[in-house]
């Protein structure tokens, strides 16, 4: 669905933010781009619908090279929707319904079709009844859901989210992840940019580790987190359960499984198997 080929990007002062990056996402996947703050995550995903144009390299969407004329950008932005980390960067209209309607109206949809899409999108994110509310009166989690609704109303095939659970309480984060699961089950391809190592194993088919503007590891959650030295070289840490298993192995000589567990379900199974031996 999206492929980045040899992408290099320079900041205006000449600093190299992305260094010959290759990245790809297949249809129907949930893929994580994992790295510490400043690693280049946001800079990379802003290339996926043409907000940034690379110094060199190509972005392909559905096999077509992204062009940067107005018509091409409008087309790709209907297909690839981006939800920013801070929803205040995305919400600007006086009311929730006007905000969600902005995209559909901007691509020339009728008032009737736009109204239907706004209603459907707000229902999907659990924000029906908030149509007349000013966005700045909403909580952080509510703003995030309205921002997602604004993208859903465009009918994208791919959604890219920057730190989707950042700033949310556990319940709010859980609601956002549940929504992403549902959208993915319905066929939407999802890319998540994050530094939260505990969430990545819960939703990712594939993980890309980025450090200093370079992708340094790609694989399943286990393939990535089993490379403990690389995780720490990237200034990240193991998920909590994997770290507990590492401590048990090194400090107490208790090795519950060949591969460290990444989720509660895995840890439970490994522990039951260990005590059954």
Q: Would you write up a description of this structure?
A:
- It is a single chain.
- This protein is of the alpha/beta class and 277 residues long.
- It has helices at residues 41-45, 70-79, 96-106, 111-124, 140-152, 170-185, 200-203, 221-225, 228-233, 240-252, 264-276, and strands spanning 2-10, 16-25, 30-34, 56-61, 64-65, 80-83, 158-162, 189-194, 206-211, 214-219.
- It has two domains: 2-235, P-loop containing nucleotide triphosphate hydrolases (Rossmann fold); 238-277.
- The strands form two sheets. It has a six-stranded mixed beta sheet.
- Helix 3 (96-106) crosses helix 4 (111-124) and helix 4 packs across helix 5.
Essential attributes:
alpha/beta; 2 domains; Rossmann fold; 10 strands; 11 helices; 6-stranded mixed sheet; 4-stranded antiparallel sheet; globular; 277 residues
The largest pleated sheet is described as: 6 strands, mixed
Helix content: 25-40%
Strand content: 15-25%
Secondary-structure-based class equals: alpha/beta
Please identify which CATH superfamily of the largest domain we are dealing with. P-loop containing nucleotide triphosphate hydrolases
- What top-tier CATH class of the largest domain fits best? Alpha Beta
Q: Distance between termini?
A: 45 Å
Q: What's the CATH topology label of the largest domain?
A: Rossmann fold
The largest beta-sheet arranges its strands as: 6-7-8-3-9-10
Rounded to an integer, what's the Rg over CA atoms? Answer: 20 Å
